[in-house]
Design goal:
This protein is mainly α and about 140 residues long. Helix content is about 80%, strand content about 10%. The strands form 2 sheets. The chain has a two-stranded antiparallel sheet with strand order 1-2. It has a two-stranded antiparallel sheet with strand order 3-4. A hairpin with a 2-residue loop joins β3 and β4. The chain is rod-shaped.
Length: about 140
C-alpha cells in the first residue's frame, strides 16, 4: 500500500486478545513501548496513591497521639497546680507555726524571768524572816 508516496506494509497486532489497528513494525514497537510506559505510569500512580493514603493514615495516628499527649499535659498541669497550691499552703502554715513558736518561746522566757524574779524576791524577803524567827 502506498500512502503519500510511502510504501507501507500494515500488520495486524493482537493486544490482550483484541485485534488492533494496522501498524508498521516501528510504529508497532513504539505503540507497545507506550503501552508498557502507560502500565508503568498506572503502577506508579497506584503506588503514589497508596503512599498518600498511608501518609494520611500516619498523620491521623500522629494527630491522635498529639491529642492524647495534649490531654495528658493538661491533666499534669492541673496536678502541678494542685501541688503548687498545697506547697504554698504548707509554706504559709509553716511560717505561721514559726511565728507561733516565737511567740510561745517569748512567753516562756517571760515566765522563766518572772519565776526567777519571784524566787529572788522570795529569797530576799523570806530568808531574813526565817533567820529572824529562827534566832
Amino acid at each position: 500500500m502506498t500512502v503519500c508516496g510511502q510504501l507501507l506494509t500494515p500488520k495486524r497486532i493482537v493486544f490482550l486478545g483484541d485485534t488492533g489497528i494496522f501498524f508498521t513494525k516501528k510504529q508497532e514497537i513504539e505503540l507497545l513501548v507506550k503501552f508498557k510506559q502507560f502500565e508503568g505510569c498506572k503502577l506508579e500512580k497506584a503506588k503514589w496513591e497508596k503512599y498518600a493514603i498511608d501518609a494520611d493514615l500516619q498523620i491521623d495516628r500522629e494527630r491522635e497521639a498529639y491529642n492524647y499527649l495534649n490531654k495528658e499535659y493538661d491533666n499534669l498541669m492541673l496536678v502541678s497546680k494542685d501541688f503548687e497550691k498545697k506547697y504554698n499552703d504548707e509554706y504559709v502554715s509553716h511560717e505561721n507555726t514559726k511565728i507561733k513558736l516565737t511567740e510561745m518561746t517569748d512567753e516562756k522566757d517571760k515566765w522563766v524571768k518572772a519565776t526567777f524574779i519571784t524566787g529572788g524576791v522570795s529569797l530576799v524577803i523570806i530568808a531574813p524572816l526565817v533567820y529572824l524567827l529562827a534566832h
